[in-house]
Amino acid sequence: MSKVNNRYFIFLVFAISIVAGIFAFSIAAQQVSLPQRVSKLRVEINTIQTSASNFDDRLRTLREWGDDLASRGRFTPQVMPVMFFRALTAGLNQESSRTISSWTQILGFIEDNYGKTGEFKRTDKNQLIAGEFTTLTLEYTVGAIEAKPGGIFRIGQHFMSDGARIQNSNPEGHSFVTFKASRQDVELENTTSNWYSAYGGFRAPEPMPAVRIKTGTLTRGDKITITLGDTTGGSKGFSVQTRDGDNYRFPLEFDPAGNGVFVPVGVVSNVIIGSGPALINAIVPSVAGSGESFSLRLRVEDKYFNPAAFNGGSFTVKLDNKIAGQIKIPAGEVSGRLDGIRIPKEGAYKFQVVDDSGEISCQSNPILIENNPGQRIYWGELHGHSGWEEGTGSVQRYYWFARDVAFLDFASLTGHDAMMIRPAWEDIRRETAKVNQPGRFVAYMGYEWTVGIDNGGHHNVFFKNDKGNYVTAWDAPRLPQLYEKLKAIDAVDNVLVIPHAHQTGNWTYNDAEIERLVEIYSMHGSFEYFGQKFLQRGYRLGLIGASDNHTGHPGYSPAQTSTRGGLAAVYSPTLDRDGIWKGMRDRATYATSGKRMVVKLSVDDKTPGQSTGVGKMPVIRARVLGTAAIDHIDVIHNGQVEYRSDYLSPVDNKPAGIQVMFTSPTETPGTK
After folding, report:
1. What residue numbers bound the domain in which 672 lies?
2. In this predicted model, what pLDDT tens digit does every residue of 27-86 receive, in sequence order?
3. Closest Cα to residue 420, out of 442, 446, 398, 441?
4. Helix pair angle (422-435, 55-71), 10° resolution
5. Nearest-10 crossing angle of helices 395-404, 422-435
6. Taking a C-beta distance cutoff of 8 angstroms, is the pair 147, 213 a contact?
7. Which of 385, 406, 496, 546 could form a disulfide linkage to 556, CB 3.0–4.6 angstroms apart?
8. In Å, how far are 72, 92, 405, 485 from 87, measured between CA atoms?
């Protein structure tokens, strides 16, 4: 037996004792009920400082308390889970200690004053039309909590709005805000309040319109009227963002003591609608069998690419200049379809659609007709957000847009785990299960594991069924832990992990069992290099595109405040969870920047996702159908372009890939 140094032995025993003590403390904390832990926190927060011995327990108590309040129907601030997670990742310091102290006060106020904070509602009937101006009148009625001198009210607006920010400093400017008290003896003083939230500044606090009670007291039944887009001083009104959607919120918060600790007192949710029709967009399947029945789907869009406010009309569908049918869309609807289309002959086709006036027309994406196609190409969105986090819009509308506006085949809503509360998970799980309909639309449960680049970067996690078990950044703060815990609690073939380049996923890590794809395109830009980094390390991964859309427009995200969103194409024989899932796990995918190009590819006799030998020169066969003229096709090997086929550059003695058409205002092309 080897001799052990006494000092080392004593230190080892001491270290084991500390670990055992922490473990025992954690187990003990779990055995104490949440109400007991909350009561203890509220009693001790002002007498016992936050320290290394109680930091973790206090933070987790706050997190569970906030979840519990939300589950009981209490309105909790959107930023709440973010603040707790920021404190967790920062560790014990002055700021995280202040977070624990202030949020103990905030949650305590919410707990003690349910039903006492009054009523906040909208009283005008004006429509919010995307890209236009309007005026909103909001009214706060004081409840049991009086508003005394020094108290401050502030109102928020979502940071992703591309309309003018609400402001109370320039009466002639867009989105000017005014506050007015119903009592004559109450004097209000304009001010601003720095707000860190999706409804203020998302990256850092930003000043939002606020009002301080200078003199007098507002008691039960008194009112404050808040006018967004007050035009009396020359303002054009409230500037509505250019994206439509539901659940567009204006939250109101109150700081009773004027000490910077704001509590929520209400929120007004609104619906933004599109403007009049300006565009149409036709979508057909990318692959169909000869003589097989399929449908063309048509959506009517406003000038900002939203579903238009449409009074109804008819559209003529043509194929090879022959009428294939008519689509009638009734007033109030945004889309229609032509069913029962059949094309007997193999080949590539595009449809033309025109409205009754002849002024609005479009061309569909290409469709490839094959005899007995084994694999179809299905289109989906695997990266998007809702109003449960820092995005906007409801879960229900997110899936409605994906299926009935973007005409996707599959989708998932990937909420940030660090920003979600328990009711959010339940809402997403419920709606995902509801909209999943084999043969029509496939939906998967998912979320975005949200950590900094140093700890692995952002990764989207998906489950094949609705019973997937979440592993959040609270439980797995580093990437290897995420892989390990996902596989420990769920079957390997039920989990899929996809890194992306915004908040870059770490390409030095890859778990081949569950990380099978990588996202290389989104609203943040094109990141082909990101996929190449994985491939250069020998990892076998398929590629997809997505949007990371935060405004309730999955699968069709125009380039308004960012790059246009991308799409994921998956090869599968069937449109159901089994088929799409197998295609993704088999890496049988490709990425586009939002257009539905048809790509049929093989290397020797292998198709995308399969492996082939490298002992001989491979034979690459590709058929590509673009939504516009194809400029060139590259074959890339080990990050280098090995071969390029150029289709638009003029070549001696060959026809140029250019078409020239001459038109005049008095003649219609093709009539003579």
Report:
1. 606-672
2. 444 579 999 999 999 999 999 999 999 999 999 999 999 999 999 999 899 899 999 999
3. 446
4. 50
5. 30
6. yes
7. 406
8. 25, 8, 40, 23
Mean pLDDT score across all residues of the chain = 90
- Are residue 125 and residue 105 in the same domain, yes or no? no
CATH number, domain at 319? 2.60.40.10
CB-based burial, 653-669: b 16+ in 10 Å, e otherwise: eeeeeeeeeeeeeeeee
Strands 442-449 and 410-416: parallel
Query: Do residues 471 and 526 share a domain?
Result: yes
State whether 307 and 453 are in the same domain: no
* Other CB atoms within 10 A of residue 540 CB: 12
Instruction: Confirm if 532 and 639 have CB atoms less than 8 A apart.
Output: yes
pLDDT in tens, 477-513: 999 999 999 999 888 999 999 999 877 777 888 899 9
**What number is the average pLDDT over the span 399-426?**
96
* DSSP assignment string, 166-216: PBSS-TTSTTBEEEEESSTT-EEEEEEEEEBSTTSBSSS-EEEEEEEEEES
601 domain residue, yes or no: no
Q: Is the pLDDT of residue 301 over 60?
A: yes
200: CATH: 2.60.40
Asked if residue 11 has pLDDT above 70, the reply is no
pLDDT score recorded for residue 16: 32
Q: pLDDT for 190-222, tens place per residue?
A: 999 999 999 999 889 999 999 999 999 999 999
Place of tokens 């939906």: 443
Number of domains present in the structure of the chain:
5
> What Å distances lie between residue 486 and 379, 425, 449, 463, 482, CA to CA?
27, 17, 12, 10, 6
Cα distance between residue 621 and residue 600, in whole Å:
8
Q: How confident is the model at residue 10 (pLDDT cuts 50, 70, 90)?
A: very low
